[in-house]
Write a structure and sequence with these properties.
The structure is a single chain. This protein is α/β, with parallel strands linked by helices. The protein has eleven helices and 14 strands. Helix 4 packs parallel to helix 6.
Amino acid sequence: AAVAATVRGVGAGKIYAAGSGQDMMSLPETVAEIMDLSGVASPHLLYIGTATYDEQAARDTQTHAFTDAGCSVSTLDLAYANATEQEIESAVAGADIVLVSGGNTLFAVDRWNKLGVPSVLRQALDNGTVLCGGSAGGIVWFDGGHSDSMDPSSYKNPPGPLLNPNMTAEEMNAWAYVRVPGTGILPGLFCPHYDVTESNGVLRSEDFTGMLQRHTGETGIAVDNWGALVIDGDNYTVISRKGKPGSAAANGTWVANNTFGHPASWRLTINPSDGSLVRTLVPTNGLTADLFSDRRYLSPVPMLNVARAQNPDDGLPPSTPHGSWQRKAQW
């Protein structure tokens, strides 16, 4: 049955939700924007890599540009370490910026809920800490999002306990996107990599339309791989990297082939009269009150239990390195 929801807002909070993790967070201009948002000349950044199982390689990729820019960096490992509430609160309280990695969103949010992380992050937002990330690190700030958390290559121990370990590459890529929950700090369904076709051969923008048609009580917010949505209290700004591909044509219309467009952000709803998609280009600047809408109801997602069973939280480190499984560069 559908579940009713209440109004939420960020107050004076600051959130940087990018369309990709490794791609966007490796850029000096992204780092400069996030540091400027913090208002601190040499901010301290806390990296949370739960979605990539606290792997060092992902951490280095997404933090090196911040280190190069003069940020001090610490980490909070939660993927299999049972940190206490006091340890989590202390780590987050010392940060000017919290950076969440890309990766498996469902695993990360489920793990955080077990450890009480969402309430700590909400308090940090209220205290002026910048919350940022791309891909999974963008989805987590919303009610939920369009996720590749059922991609076997994203599992802690690929291909998981339920799938054939000797499956072919074609079989491994026959996965489906799934609506996953976030922390609910911002209302809406967030779709990162909106202009990208993933390893399953399905363009995210086209699949997101179907997801919204199954979740008509919610509003979609979509961001292209080389873009970001920046929330600064009552105001927002759309980031679009010059010279990069995206889903917006020069005249502001959507294009399926991102080689003909530039990075953009979109607001999407479903017309209740005929079930058609209403896709609106988000202006470069505006008020958050004009962008976000509370969900009218929440539809169930039967595949979540399947996704969790395929990538269980067993409280242990990954049993094998992920080197033999191709990771997504845009994480």
